[in-house]
């Protein structure tokens, strides 16, 4: 009853053509990277992992290759044409029309029509080959350094070489299985320059709108290959990546070089935001943890959120900050993050992304799809 | 073909001239035969009382259907999936977080723990240690039992409990969404692991009522207990069979009163009742000897046997009273009655039996058992009615009151019959036909809404307002579960059931089905793998997917519920929860699964339909749909053939069969309008209704033909027909109707449906024979040609 009501109010259309909603004839199951997402009115009601804004359009991505977009502040949604059925994890628009989405099986999708249609630009096999090639280059480089190095340093370098070789073996073993690892987030500066980050320290960079990609992982100080969970740009132009085990990496030169910051928190960070003020960063993750820095991560304060929920994503708009988390947690601050108020939504479903709509209202995405909420996160309707 | 009887205006069937061999055999050895029949009665009666209720699940399902064959072959790998009871303990005032409620729940959980048949290791309630909350922390997981370790009933520990419940993932499963009830979930053993004894459903259900429901509702007036599960349902069904005994008593009393009103003779009342009961004893005793029990379907057969016995017995009483009125003594009257009735009586009973035989087209054991039981019963009625009844009557005779009743009522009756004879009048007959055609049209129109399968919510065997279905509605309403489950079995080579390709294909099937109308949700190992993979990645939803890495998959399903993987990992089910169990829903879903299975079954994984209650229903519906037309064709074929052989005239066959056809159509229309689907219980009604209903036509037409051949006009001939047999025919219809009408009050829904429909068919077929048959005769019969033909034959 509830779902059918929601379906009505959300007014889903399948590519605007009712025919596309009809059941297709049963086909043999294929690889998820080769199976287009099924047009379905269920898409706005299933897990959505991220949401982005492209001009006036809201675009959300989720499980089974679902990408949906809305031009009326989330009242009605249209399902995009997507060539894969993998779980998608992140979406970002470099311009109003040029957007990228990432997900499992190393999928990177690109749209140049503001999210209506998508094409596959990179998959896990290609990504793994790129990573292996750069790893091999690094090993060759290391071998040269060992040859040239004075004896005293040789032993240390040999250890480093062992680590590199071991990591290479892992990559090759993974590639034998297939495109195993997921990307977890994406950020694009414009129509050309962007980064994707993911599991086990994966990171790739493009300078040509995704036509070619470079393995960027070696540029981060992440020897244990921890997951990289999120990437964003903060006011002032610095880039920040956060990840597993409290990792925080910052780049002030457009991503060419990265510095690892000391983190006051050893647990995983799942999201990162700029507050809109120059060099200010909010990083957050497990157990209601929220870290705040005003100096690009050189020093941090731990903000008491009063929450124990894992915090996933949100937005900051002046003094207003809203964060969504697991178990239906929505944290709001009206004073730039000095204090937060936690609201636990009745459905207790995880919130993976929040965008502000209609001045005070919120559009939430996450477990169970799209939800309309008031400024505190309480369900509307 | 020459027949010497016809030229005398007597029908060869109804009035054989000579003493037949059978008559001599029976009447010359009256004492010996009575003694033999008494001994037989003692022997079979002794066995009859030992017969036991038996609600075997297997006999109620179409064992030859491929779905059921698939299910039965794999039932040992599936058994833990279906057999459990859920006991919802609802609090009336307040919520569950009170000391009193939790104390009641604790005691109740302990009590369930010790019930015989409960698989204790799988028992789940807020109070069992397997119900835990889990939280991700920097170091990994932390968790504990939902009931805090130091629980003492204080406000503080109740608040702790509330928090634990919230993070336990059990809201919607063990705890209702509104926190006003919780569930005690008890999986059951099909067989006692120590003794190997099969679970006694009736006893288990009784214990649930006594030790759980009554006890705790009395102990804590602020709670209400709701119990659902297959075991409880079967228990309630067996209980329902017991209620039938009351109906038997009521039926016998009603019939006896009616018989007395009809005959005004004590002997003429008690002897048919007595001999019909004897027939029931013989039938039950024989069933027992053949190893049958009484299931909810065959328990109805004794009523039919009794009613058929009475309705034919009435013909004997009637005939004897007429002969006695002529001044014959008891023995001679009995002899003449026997002589007049043994051929049409046998013919009618044989046609009944053929009606039952058509039930063999339905490949479901209970229905075939019903056919066997009814066949045996009718065969016995031939003996109890035509031999035992006649012989007893030859000793006791019809009382003077009874004879006077026959003599006195002649004239008053005649006026009534005179009026009714106008049904064959050339002015009235077209009106009757017009009404019949309109009725047929309406019937055909409404019959379009006729559905296959069960249409109501909840357990279709029981009434919608039954305790069980109310409990079921409560649980559906308060918890995220559906009672209609279709199980698709996924078979793989040994130790391969958790391979990525298997989970991936299962997930694809589930997505296909979630996009199918009528599907509420689905569940399988693939879901377990996704949700645990997510949990293993610190609860991050971005990891909610089946990993391509087998090591991760294996880690993710290590704790999977045992029902989702069989012992050698070669079978894993996909559970499909449906919104209802309507036939269209089932068909749509099953068609999707079949198309998917055809495209995706290979050496890695085979998709097989079907288990679960919805799977069984889908198979049953298919069997029923297939059997329906075959059965109708056969039953009408047999009845028409029988009539043709008897009367040697297509026109006669039409006169008799058209009213039956009208009744069948109207019956289906009534089913459609009153929301009764074609199902295991209602399909036999059509065969029984037609098989037994044709009797009226045979009795009426045989008399009508006799009087026409005597040269009477149609209306005159019909008047004479009504005078001689009209009363018996009406009475037969009424007794048959009474025999089944009490079922309407059965706690078992399908018995009520059967009773209602049979009641309609028995009565309406009688009306059809008396009202429509003469009107049809007006248009179809050519009396002058019939006479000419009979003369020519001479």
Automatic annotation (TrEMBL), chain B:
Instruction: State the Gene3D superfamilies in the record.
Output: Multidrug efflux transporter AcrB transmembrane domain
Which topology term describes how it sits in the membrane?
Multi-pass membrane protein
Q: What is the lineage of its organism?
A: Bacteria, Pseudomonadati, Pseudomonadota, Gammaproteobacteria, Pseudomonadales
Superkingdom per UniProt:
Bacteria
Where is the protein localized? Cell membrane
Q: Show where the SSD domain sits.
A: 270-395
Q: Where are the transmembrane segments?
A: 31-49, 243-262, 269-285, 297-320, 341-364, 370-398, 419-446, 630-647, 654-676, 682-702, 728-745, 757-781
Q: What species is this protein from?
A: Marinobacter lutaoensis
Signal peptide coordinates? none
- Keywords of this entry: Cell membrane, Membrane, Transmembrane, Transmembrane helix
Q: What is its main location?
A: membrane
> By its UniProt entry, which PANTHER family does this protein fall under?
MEMBRANE PROTEIN MJ1562-RELATED, SSD DOMAIN-CONTAINING PROTEIN
What protein name is recorded for this chain?
A: RND transporter
Quote the cellular component terms of the Gene Ontology held in the record.
plasma membrane
Asked if the Swiss-Prot or TrEMBL record annotates the protein with the keyword Cell membrane, the reply is yes
* InterPro entries xref list: MMPL_dom, Mycobact_MmpL, SSD
Tell me if Electron transport is a UniProt keyword of this record: no
């Amino acid at each position: 009853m509830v779902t059918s009501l929601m379906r009505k109010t959300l007014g889903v259309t399948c590519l605007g053509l009712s025919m596309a909603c009809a059941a297709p004839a049963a086909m043999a199951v294929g690889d998820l990277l080769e199976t287009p997402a099924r047009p379905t009115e269920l898409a706005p009601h299933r897990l959505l992992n991220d949401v982005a804004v492209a001009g006036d359009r809201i675009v959300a991505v989720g499980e089974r290759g679902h990408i949906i977009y809305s031009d009326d502040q989330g009242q009605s949604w249209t399902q995009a044409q997507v060539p894969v059925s993998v779980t998608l994890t992140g979406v970002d628009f470099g311009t109003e029309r040029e957007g990228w989405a990432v997900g499992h099986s190393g999928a990177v999708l690109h749209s140049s029509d503001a999210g209506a249609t998508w094409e596959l630009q990179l998959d896990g096999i290609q990504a793994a080959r790129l990573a292996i090639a750069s790893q091999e280059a690094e090993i060759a480089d290391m071998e040269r350094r060992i040859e040239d190095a004075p004896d005293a340093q040789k032993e240390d370098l040999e250890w480093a070489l062992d680590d590199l070789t071991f990591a290479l073996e892992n990559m090759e073993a993974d590639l034998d299985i297939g495109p195993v690892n997921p990307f977890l987030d994406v950020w694009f500066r414009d129509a050309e320059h962007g980064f994707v980050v993911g599991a086990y320290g994966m990171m790739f960079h493009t300078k040509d709108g995704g036509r070619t990609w470079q393995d960027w992982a070696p540029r981060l100080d992440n020897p244990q290959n921890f997951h990289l969970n999120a990437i964003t740009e903060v006011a002032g132009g610095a880039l920040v990546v956060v990840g597993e085990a409290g990792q925080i990496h910052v780049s002030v030169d457009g991503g060419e070089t990265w510095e690892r910051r000391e983190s006051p928190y050893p647990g995983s960070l799942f999201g990162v935001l700029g507050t809109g003020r120059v060099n200010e960063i909010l990083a957050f993750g497990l157990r209601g943890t929220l870290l705040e820095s005003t100096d690009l991560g050189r020093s941090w304060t731990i903000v008491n959120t009063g929450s124990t929920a894992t915090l996933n994503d949100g937005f900051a708009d002046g003094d207003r900050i809203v964060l969504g988390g697991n178990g239906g947690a929505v944290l709001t601050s009206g004073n730039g993050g000095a204090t937060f108020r936690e609201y636990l939504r009745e459905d207790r479903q995880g919130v993976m992304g929040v965008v502000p709509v209609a001045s005070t209202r919120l559009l939430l995405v996450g477990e169970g799809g799209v939800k309309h909420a008031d400024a505190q996160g309480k369900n509307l309707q | 073909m020459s027949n010497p009887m016809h030229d005398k205006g007597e029908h060869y069937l109804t009035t054989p001239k000579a003493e037949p061999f059978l008559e001599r055999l029976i009447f010359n050895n009256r004492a010996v035969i009575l003694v033999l029949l008494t001994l037989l009665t003692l022997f079979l009666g002794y066995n009859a009382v030992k017969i036991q209720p038996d609600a075997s699940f297997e006999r109620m399902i179409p064992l030859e259907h491929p779905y059921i064959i698939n299910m039965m072959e794999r039932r040992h790998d599936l058994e833990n999936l279906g057999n459990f009871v859920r006991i919802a303990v609802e609090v009336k005032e307040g919520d569950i977080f009170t000391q009193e409620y939790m104390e009641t729940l604790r005691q109740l959980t302990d009590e369930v723990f010790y019930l015989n048949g409960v698989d204790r290791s799988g028992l789940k309630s807020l109070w069992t240690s397997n119900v835990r909350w889990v939280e991700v922390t920097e170091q990994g997981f932390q968790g504990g039992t939902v009931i805090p370790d130091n629980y003492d009933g204080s406000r503080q520990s109740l608040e702790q409990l509330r928090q634990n419940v919230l993070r336990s993932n059990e809201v919607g499963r063990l705890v209702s969404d509104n926190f006003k009830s919780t569930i005690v979930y008890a999986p059951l053993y099909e067989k006692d692991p120590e003794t190997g004894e099969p679970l006694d459903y009736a006893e288990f259900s009784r214990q649930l009522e006594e030790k759980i429901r009554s006890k705790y509702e009395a102990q804590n007036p602020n709670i209400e207990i709701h119990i659902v599960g297959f075991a409880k349902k079967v228990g309630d069904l067996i209980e329902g069979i017991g209620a039938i005994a009351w109906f038997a008593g009521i039926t016998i009393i009603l019939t006896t009163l009616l018989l007395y009103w009809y005959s005004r003779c004590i002997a003429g009342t008690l002897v048919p009742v007595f001999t019909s009961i004897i027939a029931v004893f013989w039938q039950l005793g024989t069933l027992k000897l053949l190893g049958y029990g009484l299931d909810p379907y065959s328990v109805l057969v004794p009523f039919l046997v009794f009613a058929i016995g009475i309705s034919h017995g009435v013909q004997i009483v009637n005939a004897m009273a007429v002969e006695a009125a002529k001044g014959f003594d008891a023995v001679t009257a009995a002899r003449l009655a026997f002589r007049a009735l043994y051929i049409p009586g046998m013919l009618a009973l044989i046609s009944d039996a053929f009606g039952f035989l058509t039930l063999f087209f339905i490949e479901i054991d209970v229905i075939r058992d019903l056919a066997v039981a009814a066949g045996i019963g009718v065969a016995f009625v031939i003996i109890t009615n035509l031999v035992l009844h006649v012989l007893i009557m030859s000793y006791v005779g019809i009382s003077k009151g009874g004879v006077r009743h026959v003599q006195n009522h002649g004239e008053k009756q005649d006026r009534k019959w005179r009026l009714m004879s106008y049904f064959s009048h050339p002015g009235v007959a077209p009106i009757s036909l017009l009404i019949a055609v309109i009725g047929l049209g309406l019937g055909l129109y409404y019959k379009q809404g006729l559905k296959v399968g069960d249409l109501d919510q909840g357990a279709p065997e029981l009434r919608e307002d039954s305790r069980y279905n109310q409990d079921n509605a409560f649980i559906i309403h308060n918890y995220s579960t559906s009672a209609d489950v279709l199980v698709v079995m996924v078979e793989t080579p040994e130790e391969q059931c958790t391979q990525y390709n298997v989970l991936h294909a299962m997930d694809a099937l589930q997505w296909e089905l979630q996009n199918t109308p009528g599907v509420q949700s689905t569940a399988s190992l693939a879901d377990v793998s996704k949700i645990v993979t997510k949990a293993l990645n610190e609860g991050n939803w971005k990891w909610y997917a089946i990993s391509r890495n087998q090591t991760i998959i294996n880690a993710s399903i290590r704790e999977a519920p045992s029902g989702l993987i069989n012992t050698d990992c070669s079978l894993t089910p996909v559970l499909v929860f449906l919104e209802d169990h309507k036939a269209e829903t089932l068909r749509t879903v099953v068609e999707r699964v079949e198309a998917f299975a055809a495209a995706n079954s290979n050496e890695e994984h085979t998709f097989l339909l079907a288990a679960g209650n919805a799977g069984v229903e889908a198979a049953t519906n298919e069997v029923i749909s297939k059997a329906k037309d075959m059965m109708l064709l056969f039953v009408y074929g047999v009845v028409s053939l029988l009539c043709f052989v008897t009367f040697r005239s297509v026109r006669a066959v039409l006169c008799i069969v058209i009213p039956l056809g009208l009744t069948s159509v109207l019956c289906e229309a009534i089913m459609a309008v009153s929301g009764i689907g074609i199902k295991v219980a209602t399909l036999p009604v059509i065969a029984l209704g037609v098989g037994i209903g044709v009797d009226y036509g045979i009795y009426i037409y045989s008399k009508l033909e006799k009087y026409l051949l005597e040269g009477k006009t149609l209306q005159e001939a019909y008047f004479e027909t009504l005078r001689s047999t009209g009363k018996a025919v009406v009475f037969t219809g009424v007794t048959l109707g009474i025999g089944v009408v009490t079922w309407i009050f059965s706690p078992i829904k399908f018995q009520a449906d059967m009773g209602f429909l049979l009641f309609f068919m028995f009565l309406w077929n009688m009306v059809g024979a008396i009202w429509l048959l003469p009107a049809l005769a007006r248009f179809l019969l050519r009396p002058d040609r019939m006479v000419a033909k009979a003369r020519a034959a001479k």
